[in-house]
Write a structure and sequence with these properties.
Helix content is about 75%, strand content about 0%. It has about 240 residues and is mostly helical. The chain has a domain at about 1-40. Strand 1 (about 225-230) and strand 2 (about 230) form a beta hairpin.
Length: about 240
């Protein structure tokens, strides 16, 4: 229990720091939304559904995609940043291929490499042009052949767009480079080393993927999982 208590204390301290940095105006908006949810049942339902959808339809798939890629990177001991730096000509097509994958995980990986200064701005344009985000799951479920055709078109257009941008602006356009100096505007990349946090995220991720899969393929979750206190069980899972 000791690690969990340490995690709880860190979470409370982090929340306080976040509230201090969040700003009084935004914090006031958040408070107003909380009051609205208390006073209006309809507003509370809309907010609950939105928060649940954000977790079950976006977060779990992004987390799963990142977990797969970073696990493979760690398993095979691949330094993606160094690999892309050595083979710059392949940065754009690799970024487009990651963007063509269903979900937002590939795009997030490319953006992460970009803010580290590892890839060109054309690669960012390439991945954002090729990606369909989480809408890809719905398209694959409803029309697989059409979906694959659109993925191929997005991949080709993404590659061409990325190369055109790099040709016009150069591969160093808008790339972060600290030059060994702390300018105060360096990217903030935080690594979670706590095993307790990782286990906690896994406990949320695994059931979230199951429920998210049902939602992605347009299954009737209300009849499958039922309701609790007048609200779908899936919504409660997303809020938890």
């Amino acid at each position: 229990m000791a690690p969990l208590s340490i995690v709880a204390r860190r979470g409370i301290r982090g929340t306080a720091e976040w509230a201090n940095a969040f700003g009084p105006i935004r914090l006031g908006i958040l408070t107003a939304l909380a009051l609205l949810a208390v006073l209006s049942n309809d507003a509370a339902q809309i907010m609950a559904q939105s928060l649940s959808d954000a977790f079950l339809q976006v977060t779990v798939f992004v987390a799963a995609t990142l977990a797969i890629f970073y696990s493979l990177e760690a398993w095979y001991k691949i330094d993606v940043t160094a690999l892309l730096a050595r083979h710059q000509v392949w940065q754009v097509p690799i970024a487009a291929a990651l963007g063509a994958l269903p979900g937002c995980g590939g795009a997030i990986m490319v953006i992460t490499q970009y803010i580290r200064g590892g890839i060109s701005f054309g690669s960012v344009v390439s991945v954002l042009t090729a990606t369909m985000g989480d809408a890809a799951f719905l398209l694959l479920a409803q029309a697989p052949i059409t979906g694959l055709s659109i993925f191929a078109i997005g991949l080709i257009v993404g590659i061409l767009s990325g190369y055109v941008v790099d040709m016009i602006h150069g591969t160093g356009f808008l790339r972060y480079n600290s030059n060994g100096r702390d300018t105060g505007s360096s990217p903030c990349i935080r690594r979670v080393d706590s095993r307790a946090w990782r286990y906690l995220w896994s406990l949320f991720l695994i059931p979230g993927l199951i429920f998210g899969g049902y939602i992605a393929f347009q299954a009737d979750t209300a009849s499958t999982f039922g309701t609790f206190m007048g609200t779908e069980t899936v919504v409660w899972v997303g809020l938890a």
